[in-house]
Amino acid sequence: MPFSLQALLNRIYASRVLRDSGVIFIGRWVNLALSILTSALVARALGLEQTGLVTLAMASVSIVVQFIDVRTSEALIRFMGNALAREERDEALSYFHIGLVVDVVVAALALLVVLLIVPPILNGYADRDRLLPLFSIYVLTTPFTILQNTFEAAFTIYRRFRLQTLLDIGMAVLSLIVLVALSASGMEAVVWGYVLVAIVNLVVTGGVSLGLLRQGLRGAKGTGYRERLRQFMPFAMHTSLMGSIKAAAVHFDALLLGGLRGPADVALFDKARSALSLLSLPVSPVSSVIYPMMNEAWAKGDPARLRYLIRRFMVFSLVVGLAGAAAFFIAADWLVVLIYGTEFAAASGLLRIMLIGIVLELVMGWVRTVAMVAGRPQLVTYTGLTAIIGRYVATVPLIGALGAAGAAIGYNIGAGLSVLLNAVFVLPRLNIWGQTPKRKDASGAEHSSALSGKSNS
User: Fold this and answer.
1) Where are the alpha helices (DSSP H) in 184-302?
2) How far apart are alpha carbons 262 and 127 in whole angstroms?
3) For the segment 94-147, what is each residue's pLDDT rounded down to a tens digit?
4) pLDDT tens profile 148-174
C-alpha cells in the first residue's frame, strides 16, 4: 500500500491523545526555550557564584514548601474527574471547594514553617550574609505557589490544554522580560522578579480557571463536605507525600552541595539538570493527557483501554528516551556552552551521567499514574520514600568525595531503586496485566469487577 501522508495526518488528528499531546508538546517546547533563554541570560549576567547563591536561596524555601504542599491538583483531577465522568456535578463542586480550603490552610502553614526553620539552617552556611537577604525575598512566593495547585487542576479536568498552553507561554514571556531586565541590578532584584511573576501567574490562572468552573458547574451545589473530605485527604496525603519527597529531593541536592562544596557546584548541578529537562519534554505532554484518560477508563470499567494507554506510553517514552539520550551524550559539551557559556562547561559531564536515570524515569513514569487512578497511591509512596532514602544514603558520601558528580551519580541510584521497587512491589499489587485489578470508588470501597464491565459507580 503506497504511503499516504494525508492518511497519516488524518490518523494523528483523529487521535485525542496525539492531538492534545501535540498541543502541549509544542507549548512546552516554547516554554522550555523561553525558560532556558531566561536562565542563560540571567546566569551570564550574574556569573557562576551569584547564580549558585540565588539557586541555593530559592532551594532553601522550595524544599520546605514542596514537602509541605498537599498538591491538591492531583487529587482534584482524580475525584472531580471521576465525579464528572459520572455526571455528579454537585460532588465535583464539593471537591473543588475542599481542595481550595486545603490549599489556603497549607499555604499559611508552609509560610510559617519556612520562616521558623530555614533561617537557622542558612546561618550555618559560609555565605549566610548573602543568602539570608535573598531568602527573605523569595519566601514571599510561598502562598502563591501553593494556591496555584487548585486552579491549575481545572484545565486538566476539562481538558482545556490549548488554553493552559497559551497561559503558560504568556507567563514564560513575562518571566523572561522581568528577570532579564532585573538581572542587571543584581541578585536581589532577580529574586524580586520571581515574586512578581508568581503573583501575576496566580491572578491570571485563578481568574481563567474560575471562569471554566462557573461554566462547567453552573447550578451545582456543594454537599457532603465532611464525608468527601475524609475521602479526599488520605488520597491527597499519599499522592502529595510522594510528589513532595521527589520535589524536595531536587532541592536537597542543592542544599547538600552548598553545605559540603560551595555555590559553584550548586550552579553546575542545577544547570545540568535544567538541560536534562529537554529530554523529558516530548514525554511529559503525553503524561498530562493520559492521566485523565486513564482516570476515565478506570471510572467506566474499561480495562482494555487502560492497558492500551499504558502500552502506548511505554513504547513512545522508550523510543524518545533512547534517541534523546544518544543525542545528548554526543552534543552535551556544545549544548551547555552554547546555552550557559564556557564558565558552566563542566555541567556537560554531569548531564551525561544523569542520562541513565532520566530514561528509567521516563519509561516507568506511568506506574505512579495508574496507582493514583486505582486509588492506591500509598503503594508508590512506600517505594518512592524507600528509593529516596537509599539515594541519599549513597549521595552524601559521594558529594563529599566527588562534588556535583557525586550528586549526579546519586540521581541515577535513586532512579534505579525506584524502578526496581515498583516492579517487585507495586505492579504485582495493581495486577494490571493479570486478572482484573480491584478498584476503589470515591467512597473507598473496593470493586473487583469494576474494570470487567460497567462501572459500579
Assistant:
1) 187-216, 225-260, 263-280, 284-300
2) 9
3) 999 998 999 999 899 999 999 999 999 888 888 889 999 999 999 999 999 888
4) 878 888 888 887 878 888 898 999 999
DSSP per-residue letters across 154-177:
HHHHTT-HHHHHHHHHHHHHHHHH
Question: What b/e string do you get for 75-84 counting C-beta neighbours within 10 Å, with b at 16 or more?
Answer: bbbbbbbbbb
Question: Which of helix, strand or coil describes residue 306?
Answer: helix
Calpha distance 453→143 (Å, rounded): 44
The whole-angstrom separation of Cα 361 and Cα 425 is 17
Residue 409 has pLDDT above 90, yes or no: yes
Residues 6+ apart with CB under 8 A from 27: 164, 165, 166, 168, 169, 285
Please determine, for residue 439, whether its predicted confidence score (pLDDT) is greater than 50.
no
Q: Are 362 and 320 in contact (CB under 8 A)?
A: yes
3-state secondary structure of 446: strand
C-alpha dihedral over 155, 160, 165, 166, to 10 degrees?
-110
Contacts of 205 (CB under 8 A, 6+ apart): 148, 151, 152, 167
